[in-house]
């Protein structure tokens, strides 16, 4: 087992696939933040570390579109394209871990296992971003344009961990254009009222193509997703929201 080489190969593979965030912490750090013993071990008995993967900024979309152009059959066979692309790339990346004799379990923030891991908290602990009024993480460079896509829980004990971003807490001193930009008044100094937001979205087409509050955030403007990518994300989020409220009226 060569931990450093395995992590380097994993990071490069994901970067080539459009995922420019590969962050790692020991599982004890996650357990300690929740003040629980064996939280990770309950999910994966051999847990020693967590490798978080995602993408930040506008670069992912170009890599993803290029993949679809070169693999038209993928688009023909799948509906939730980004989710399925994520699953595919994690499956392929898992072979890197196997080649280094590293055991692991894969978890995603979507699908059947979505609630097993708190991805927002994990992202905060790993340094992907800090909490914001928008209910998502905010990064000093990429602003709110971050998507956490999945994680490997492994039996690899890492020596050098990533950690929370220090000295960056922009929301308290910000003029908060995100609040006035929301047409449904679902953002306040207390944060994001997700249920009110989602109920508005399924009853009104105002937010059908993008989130005005997310766009209003002054951070990461240069890394904002394209209109095409925003439309894609909103289309599939709306589909999930409608399903949720059908099951939870």
Notes on the structure:
This protein is α+β, with helices and mostly antiparallel strands. It folds into two domains: 3-154, 3-Layer(aba) Sandwich (NADH Oxidase), CATH 3.40.109; 177-247, no CATH class. The protein is 45% helix and 14% strand. It has a four-stranded antiparallel sheet, sandwiched between helices. A hairpin with a 2-residue loop joins β7 (187-188) and β8 (191-192). α1 packs antiparallel against α6 (81-99) and α9 (194-203) crosses α11 (227-247).
Corresponding CATH architecture of the largest domain: 3-Layer(aba) Sandwich
Written as H for each helix and E for each strand, in order along the chain, the element string is: HEHHEHHHEHEEEHEEHHH
Largest sheet: 4 strands, antiparallel
Radius of gyration: 18 Å
Strand content: 5-15%
How does the overall form come out from the CA principal axes?
globular
- Residue stretches low in confidence (pLDDT < 50, at least 5 long) are none
Give the helix/strand class: alpha+beta
Give the tally of structural domains: 2
* CATH fold assignment of the largest domain: NADH Oxidase
Integer average pLDDT = 92
Order of strands, main sheet, comes to 1-2-6-3
Helical proportion, percent range: 40-55%
Query: Counting H and I runs of at least 4 residues, what is the number of helices?
Result: 11
Distance between the amino and carboxyl termini: 50 Å
Q: For this structure, what is the CATH class of the largest domain?
A: Alpha Beta
What's the total number of strands?
Answer: 8
Tell me the layout of helices and strands.
Layout: H1 3-16, E1 21-26, H2 27-33, H3 39-43, E2 49-56, H4 59-70, H5 72-77, H6 81-99, E3 104-107, H7 119-126, E4 130-131, E5 137-138, E6 146-154, H8 177-181, E7 187-188, E8 191-192, H9 194-203, H10 212-216, H11 227-247
